From TrEMBL:
Keywords: DNA-binding, Transcription, Transcription regulation. This is Helix-turn-helix domain-containing protein. PROSITE patterns: HTH_ARAC_FAMILY_2 (PS01124). It comes from the Bacteria. SUPFAM superfamilies: Homeodomain-like, Regulatory protein AraC. Gene3D superfamilies: Homeodomain-like. The keyword Mitochondrion does not apply. SMART domains: HTH_ARAC. It holds the Pfam family HTH_18.
Length: 285
């Protein structure tokens, strides 16, 4: 199975980010972190992590969660969160990032109505942990049939036992108009974003009320949200084969070092390691 390792970090940190050619829409990460800290960020799909050793802490809107060995740490789509060591020796884990469409599709096959699936933040379920580990190992081996089968089994088990709610998805329309318009402007202004004062004027409000409402409803202040959008755009360009230096200039980062800092704090590996994995999976596909 193709992938890329980012090694040599403090305390023997190592991270391998990859996808299986049979499941190109599902990102996988296997890592051990000690001093690495994930910045506040969100993923468009689900994040499901099996903690193999140590303790991971992650801050959610509802408070700080801790996940220890054998447990599953789960973050629902669009939820802003962090990630850091909960003990001095750090933590090691296997993570899958299945998209919303895949999880919702399996849920419908199981008879659930349409809607957004939500899971509890920390799950103590040895059987579910075993299924996730089996899928991850099949992905590492490059076993297409086993990986695709085990992924569906693992997700079906989680949905059957732990799906917390299925709710209607109001989407962007649920945001206040000023926040929605400000978000749209930022997403279209990666290279030359407006100042906060300019952004507030463009959406017809004052700077501080906009800052407060944006943070409350989006989970991040405008400048941090912009960096998350830039990282997502950078991933797309890296997948297309652009050099990291060119990606930095095309997504509004000051230089490659600036891109690398934000990329690693969000994705868990630097752009070069991410792109190496992308090239390997494209070669094997």
């Amino acid at each position: 199975m193709g992938g890329s390792d980012a090694k040599g970090g403090p305390g023997g940190e190592v991270a391998r980010y990859f996808r299986h050619p049979a499941l190109p829409e599902v990102d996988l990460l296997r890592a051990r972190y000690v001093t690495h800290r994930f910045t506040r960020h969100a993923h468009p799909g689900h994040t499901i992590a099996l903690i193999e050793s140590g303790v991971e802490e992650f801050d959610l809107p509802g408070g700080l969660e801790r996940a220890g060995p054998g447990s599953l740490a789960v973050v629902n789509p669009g939820v802003v969160h962090t990630g850091q060591a909960g003990v001095p020796e750090g933590w090691a884990y296997r993570v899958i990032y299945p998209p919303v469409e895949l999880v919702s599709g399996i849920a419908r096959e199981l008879g659930a109505p349409r809607g957004t699936i939500a899971f509890p933040a920390v799950l103590d379920d040895p059987a579910a942990a075993g299924r996730l580990r089996a899928f991850h190992r099949a992905g590492e081996r490059g076993d297409a049939l086993a990986a695709s089968s085990l992924l569906r089994v693992a997700l079906a088990g989680l949905l059957t036992r732990h799906a917390k709610q299925v709710r209607g998805d109001a989407g962007p329309a649920a945001l206040p108009p000023a926040v929605r318009d400000a978000r749209d402007i930022l997403e279209a202004s990666l290279l030359d974003p407006p100042s906060l004062d300019e952004l507030a004027e463009l959406v017809g409000t004052r700077p501080f009320p906009l800052l407060r409402a944006f943070r409350e409803r989006v989970g991040l202040p405008p400048h941090a949200y912009l960096n998350q959008v830039r990282v997502r755009a950078a991933r797309t360009l890296l997948d297309e084969g652009l050099r990291p230096a060119d990606v930095a200039s095309r997504t509004g980062f000051a230089d490659q070092a600036h891109l690398t800092r934000h990329f690693k704090r969000t994705v868990g590996v630097p752009p070069g390691a991410y792109q190496s994995a992308a090239r390997t999976r494209a070669h094997r596909a």
